[in-house]
Specification:
This protein is α/β, with parallel strands linked by helices. The chain is built from 17 helices and 15 strands. It folds into two domains: about 240 residues, Type I PLP-dependent aspartate aminotransferase-like (Major domain) (Aspartate Aminotransferase, domain 2, 3-Layer(aba) Sandwich); about 160 residues, Alpha-Beta Complex (Aspartate Aminotransferase, domain 1). The protein binds D-serine (DSN).
Amino acid sequence: MDKNVNRIIKMETRRQRAELQLIPSENYVSKNVLRALGSVFTNKYAEGYPEKRYYQGNKYADQIEKLAIQRAKILFDTPFANVQANSGSPANLAVLFALLDVGDTIMGMSLSSGGHLTHGHPKVTLSGKFFNSIQYGVSPEGFIDYKVMREMAHQHKPKLIISGGSAYSRTIDFKLIGEIAKEVGAYHMADISHIAGLVVAKTHPSPTPFADIITTTTHKTLRGPRGALILTTDAGTNKDPELASKIDKAIIPGTQGGPHLNNIAGIAVALGEAQSPQFTEYINQVVLNSKALCNVFIKKGYTIISGGTDTHLLLLDVSAKNIDGWAAAWALEYAGVIVNRNIIPFDTKTPFYPSGIRLGSPALTSRGMKEEQMEYVATIIDKTLNYTVRSMDTNFSNNSKGENKEKRAVFLKKLKTDTYLKEIKKEVADFASRFPIYPTIE
Ligand code: DSN
């Protein structure tokens, strides 16, 4: 093995073991998924689809892709699956390419309400630049405002309505969104990237009866390798008999070349694992754990967007603590706790220096942690944030954007050398070592 690369991989393995991973879109794959990812399938080009390839030598590529497709269709109860999209954004892009012409109107949830960049975020994304993007959002209480969504749909008549998000912690009413889409003659695409595992385990209602198309990444709550699925439903196929073939064509030749067969092999493994009763138990615990985290934060007086969670994630507004999401996330990293900063609904700050942090339980639950450990994790987070605010200057609001780069650089320097945070980090590593990951991998 390349000495330098091996050294870095070993350090990353140690980091993943020693730190507490709370980014809700990350997880730990099984050893069998890792094995498939590192398989010889990485060597093969397979443009096209099973039995319709452009290159020779695809006998086993066909088998592996068919297996992944079959498992995806069973898990999500759909008549069609495409497993080739390299990740969530390319999957969503392919759906836009399949269904729309440039300039058509699309409607998705705004980023600050918990949506995703590919759901029509204006100006800086392809979905917001090449299409006429209308964005719905949440009410001041933090729940999707379905009434306003319906009014907007009737007013703007989008060709595509996108449901789902990446920082929305509440149950999504796919049935109602499907009805709204029908009323205005729009396609309904449900992006379930975050909640796919919950949908499989039935802890979140499935969009399959109510959406025309479903997209999902495979590496979040599904606990697979990086990749994505695009599924079409009976509802979608009845509306447009060409839908599935439009999706296939939008992937290749539309937006991608050869599929990543080693990832597809890993996806097949993960989808097989997701069919097991253990996976359902795992997801049930994921939700119990994220609710347990919420309860501790509520007791400690934190503001949680929407006041709680129904899923694997929660969004904390840390601004009332006199710290922003950027500073909170950095302070936590120096204490061995990994979260991501996140914009919150009606945020007055910017996505780079937002008011919130986003936390999730999938990775910690994969390590075997339960509610009792969540109590400890939330307490460590609270202790770290309180200490940081008490002992360092975390007020960066010298202008409306609150950038204050010089002051932020000083803050980072302080974090690096702070001995109390080092103590917490050590305590966290000891705690984490009780929940080993990949014990037999160096
Ligand atoms: N980066 C993903 C997430 O963290 O939710 C979305 O693309």
